[in-house]
Amino acid sequence: MFHTKLDDFPEDFMWGAASAAYQIEGAFAEDGKGLTIWDEYAMTPGNTFEETDGKVAVDHYHRYQEDVQWMKKMGLKAYRFSVSWGRILPDGEGEVNEAGLAFYENLVDELLANGIEPLVTLYHWDLPLALQQKYQGWEGRETIAAFKKYCEALFTRLGSKVKYWITMNEQNVFIPLGYRWAAHPPKVTDLKRMYQANHHVNLANAEAIKSFRELVPTGKIGPSFGYGPTYPLSAKPQDVLAAENADDFNNRFWLDVYCKGKYPKFMLKQLKNLGLAPEILPEDDKLLASVTPDFLGVNYYHGGTVKENSYEAGDFADASEKDFSKVDPYQMAAKEGEHAPEKAMFQAVDNPYLEKTDWGWEIDPVGFRVALRKLASDYDLPIIVTENGLVAFDELTAEGAIHDDYRIDYLQSHLQELQKAITDGVEVLGYCAWSFTDLLSWLNGYKKRYGFVYIDRDNQDEKSLARIPKDSYFWYQEVIATNGQNLTSK
After folding, report:
1. Could you say which DSSP state residue 341 is in?
2. Sheet strands (E) in 147-291
3. Residue 95 is among the residues annotated as catalytic for this protein
4. What is the rounded CA–CA span in Å between residue 404 and residue 431?
5. Distances from the Cα of 237 to the Cαs of 37, 229, 232, 243, in angstroms?
6. Is the N or the C terminus of the chain less surrounded, counting Cβ atoms within 10 Å?
7. Which one-letter DSSP state was computed for residue 459?
8. Whether the Cβ atoms of residue 178 and residue 187 lie closer than 8 Å to each other
9. For residues 26 and 24, what is the distance between their CA atoms, to the nearest angstrom?
10. Active-site pick, 152, 321, 342, 387
């Protein structure tokens, strides 16, 4: 759709940035915090690049006041961060740790005192290790009750101060990476277990929202989903059907549960036929149907392109279509020879029209607009963009600067498409770039940099941990100051 003039961003638009507890906090065993599955996983030799871990990370736990001052100088209107479950309930379900609650309350107070809206993520992958050992983590129904207790402790303590809450971050990413690809904890490769664990996370999400309605009646809550649109490789009807299948497989299977309170019939039938469907009790259906989110959080990096499934196409060389040396967390696709449900549905291929980042992710700003339009049409919920950003090899110059024009170009092009989506009629409450500071990549250490603020450290040496604003910091500062009116020029 072409517009002769774009709408302005709303006056109360939340210009923000985001982070996750494990990736920035450090202080992994301080003030009563219990170990998490990521503490154990990253400290196990061979699991991460150059044995990097989050023991110190970027030391946000001790430097949060300094970090908030950098946010204030930027003019940030919102900051999305996650709470470490292990700081609140060290064993995942027992006594509440006052020191953990106090840390997050102090952070929230610091943000509010500086005019920054806190957006609190309840689960960003760092499950307490005790729950994994006792109940097999999300495979055990007992973890649902533990999550509810954890959430209620936060709702009770912070509900009067925090308006916006995110339940689960990228369930469609941490479940497959942990239970199918064995690339994240608990390092399992079992589709049956994957779909059962996923069902329990859905129930935990619903329980959290149900409790929230009682304890924080004036607040807003919703999940954050790693979404990308699905394109057919061509107008060939079989490719169009493959794209429909892939959208069901990669997106609707999660989003329909969140937003409609039930599993989509197509995917559930395929899983039942394959013997992979989770055990769903009658009371599970009632719980899922009883709650809906107030908004939908969207993490956007890229979508996917597919063609006709290999069985009907008579093409079994699908491995040549895609580089499987790196797992794509946002678009599940079967490897050659792998028994997987999607092999009868679609083949994933590269999009011939898109360039890629240094890490092999497609760059598709127009897809951002497509994603927002489709989500608004399918689910009719306000949207908060909870993540969007570019990873790169940033270099600190001899003068102590970081010239990241490539990041500015990436963010500018995506924000331009976001503004077009708003002009189309999509209700977008805010945009949180990933990330505010550089941080620990889950598997790739500190060489993958996303932040507006450079952290002086590397994989081997913590160095000074100094905060150094990049060129993109000052560019985003101007975007915020003008409420996006400067997006037509760098």
Report:
1. G
2. 164-169, 220-226, 230-232
3. no
4. 20
5. 45, 18, 9, 10
6. N
7. S
8. yes
9. 6
10. 387
CA 452, CA 438: separation in Å to the nearest integer? 7
* Nearest 10 degrees: Cα torsion 63, 64, 68, 69: -30
Phi, psi dihedral angles at 297 (to 5 degrees): -80, 140
Question: Under DSSP, is residue 169 helix (H, G, I), strand (E, B) or coil?
Answer: strand
Q: What is the mean pLDDT of the chain?
A: 94
pLDDT at 488: 72
Residue corresponding to tokens 């709408």 = 7
Distance CA 486, CA 410 (A): 15
Question: What integer pLDDT is reported at residue 321 of this predicted model?
Answer: 38
Q: Six-digit token pair at 470? A: 């990049």
End-to-end CA, the chain: 24
C-alpha 23/C-alpha 60 separation (Å) is 9
Question: Which DSSP symbol is given to 316?
Answer: -
Fold of 14-481: TIM Barrel (3.20.20)
Q: What is the DSSP string of 46-100?
A: TSSGGG--SSSTT-HHHHHHHHHHHHHHHT-SEEEEE--HHHHSTTSSSS--HHH
pLDDT at residue number 318: 44
Interstrand relation of 453-455 and 428-434 (parallel, antiparallel or unpaired): unpaired
CA-to-CA separations, 37 to 65, 99, 123, 195, in angstroms, rounded: 27, 21, 13, 20
Range list of H helices, 322-395: 365-379
What tokens does 380 get?
């009719």
298 contact partners, CB below 8 Å, separation of at least 6:
224, 225, 227, 371, 372, 375, 383, 384, 385, 386, 387
For 150-249, strand residue ranges (E) read 164-169, 220-226, 230-232
Alpha-carbon 377 to chain mean position? 21
The residue from 170, 321, 342, 362 that is catalytic is 170
Query: Which residues, at least 6 apart from 118, have a Cβ–Cβ distance to it below 8 Å?
Result: 78, 79, 81, 107, 108, 111, 112, 161, 162, 164
Does residue 170 carry a catalytic annotation?
yes
Domain edges within the chain: 14-481
CB 227 within 8 A of CB 298: yes
Exposed (0-12), middle (13-18) or buried (19+): which is 61, by Cβ within 10 Å? buried
In the prediction, which pLDDT does 314 show? 81
Residues in contact with 172: Cβ distance below 8 Å, sequence separation at least 6, in sequence order: 225, 226, 250, 251, 253, 254, 330
Q: Which two tokens stand for residue 25?
A: 């906090």
Reported as a pLDDT band with limits 50, 70 and 90, residue 335 is low
Our measurement of the distance from residue 29's CA atom to the centroid of its chain's CA atoms, rounded to an integer in Å, reads: 25
pTM of the predicted model as reported, rounded to 2 decimal places: 0.94
pLDDT of 296:
98
For the record, the structure tokens of 391 come out as 């990873």
Residues 6+ apart with CB under 8 A from 281: none
